[in-house]
Amino acid sequence: MCIRDRYNAEYMGILILGRKLMRKFLQRGFCAVLNEATIGENVKSAKYAVKGEIVQKGEAIREAMSKGKVFPFKKLHPCNIGDPIIHGQKTFTFNRQVMAATLYPDLVNKKTFSQDALDRAAFYLKNTNYGAVGAYTESSGLLFVRESVKKFIEKRDGLPASVNEIFLTNGASDAVSTLLNMLCSEPNDGIMMPVPVYPMYSALASLNRGKYIPYYLNEEEGWSLDIKEVEKNYRIAKDQGLNPKALVIINPGNPTGEVLNAENLREILMFCYENNMQVIADEVYQEVTYDKPFVSAKTVLKMLGEPYVSRLELASLSSSAKSLMSECGLRGGYVELVNWDPFALGQFAKLRTVGLCSNVLGPVSYTHLRAHETEADLVCRLLLEKKKRQYASEQFECYRNQCKTT
Q1: By the 8 A CB rule, do 187 and 167 touch?
Q2: N or C, fewer C-beta in 10 Å, the chain?
Q3: Those residues with Cβ within 8 angstroms of residue 31's Cβ, 6 or more apart along the chain or in another chain
Q4: Does 274 score more than 70 pLDDT?
Q5: pTM of this prediction?
């Protein structure tokens, strides 16, 4: 048989087989495995307004503007998500030099950057697995980064911390996902959340088949937290047959910006202890405050003393996204699990192994703000704070001038 005849025979065989398969599909009523009917209600009910219809409309306008379409405005400023870089904030030279040298270690010996940056990069490389930021790390994160976070927490709160209770994550949202996955184990399990709330929390509660139990912040009092409002909505949830297992506090508030005082936190912590609820303290914005000092939940836990300080379960979150460096895209974060049952702590650690490990650059960049062992570290932090204040002042004036002209 010549090559052409053989090719034609094989082609006809494939064609016949394809027709037979098509007939089978039509006979059984073939449809996609994933469609509107088969996708779980938990997925369809999850909503994330930060990337919702308004944002999608804005992206469509931006694309149209790039193709020459004229609108009654010249620029779009996306305010749906807290990313200072998209509003013009420049990244810090020191951070970029250190990151570059850790990614390309040959730069350490070429003296291309400042000596402080090269020394820091050399230290990071020495303490990463196999001297490379591209290698897998422990599932809980690099030990030297967790030690740096531990020192920061101890200095901030005046209480001991343990590297075995600190997990490095891809931003704080990654930790929240794992927490709600563990907390929402039954259909009637609920999570109390403030309103307004950062939409990620309500979306993740839905995805994990948990119930969103709202408590409303007081807008007339600057979005303050009223413990009576929390108690009222807790009772309503219990009357509805729900099981509130945790309460979320976002301090400083997102999106409200309110900073909770020690008395607010004391009431919440005592309430959660008395009702056997875990506290999830989202403290991502702790370094971005203006007129009120930030107080951490763990600091207030220390003030309360026993039995709270050794028994109340607390998950404290932070990230590099909203720190002085505002490196949102690097996705560096951590969660500290305080007073957790040893078995539950082990299960959290197990779930972290499913994803092998968090990214490396994000958590490593986080140590720029967490290690203050040398004079260079202190100088670096002071410069960052100065630049942050200058940037905030400039942006405020910019937006105020824009408001005057519109």
Answers
A1: no
A2: C
A3: none
A4: yes
A5: 0.76
